[in-house]
Amino acid sequence: MTENIYVIGHKSPDTDSVTIAITYANLKESLGMSEAKPAIAGDLNGETKFVLDLFKVPYPRSLPDATGKKVILVDQQ
Q1: Alpha-carbon span 50 to 71, nearest angstrom
Q2: 0.85 cut: is pTM over it?
């Protein structure tokens, strides 16, 4: 079994941080890296929930602690 690699943004996920994590994980998956999964480090705000719901995109997995996990960091502050 392959270990997941979490694509994640900063600790206060806003819309661009969440959508870039989803987009980059999807790109990596389409290029053959099926272990790339989008994640968030904090709670989704209302705007982000609205956008994801509008386009019927599943919420990324919550990953408040990445200790010992493989990550790709995007949109850091």
Answers
A1: 26
A2: yes
